[in-house]
Amino acid sequence: MDTNNKEILIHNESLLKDIQGAFSARYPFLKIEFLQTDNTAKTLRSAKIDNSTALKQIANVGVPQKLDINSNRTVSDISHDLQHTLGVIVQVFRKSGNVWNVISVTEGWTLENQNSAGEFISSEMASSY
Q: For tag attachment on the chain, is the N or C end more exposed, with fewer CB atoms within 10 Å?
C-alpha cells in the first residue's frame, strides 16, 4: 500500500486491511471500518466487511484512486470520498481508552483534531487507573 502519510493509493487489488493500516499509521487513534448495507427488508442494516477482503470484491475501482487523508480533512470528507468514488460505506471510529467509538456528532472535525482528541481521552483514561 503506497502512502506518503497524506494520501492512500487504492486499486482493485487493495485489501481493506491495507487501507485501514495506512489510515491508522497516519492517525493511530482513529480507524475506519468498511460496511455493507442490506436495505431489502424495509430496514437499513449494515454489517462490517471482513478486512481481508480485496476491494475488487466489493467495488470496481477501475483506475487507481488516491484517498486524500490530509490532516485538515474531516471525517465526513473521508466518508463522502469513499462512498462516491468507490461506492463503499465506511465508519470512522475514535479510540477512547480501550474502546472504539463511532464518530457521528463530531464528524465535521478535522482528522488531526479527531486523532488528538482520541489521544487525549486515551491518555486521561490510562492515567486514571
A: C
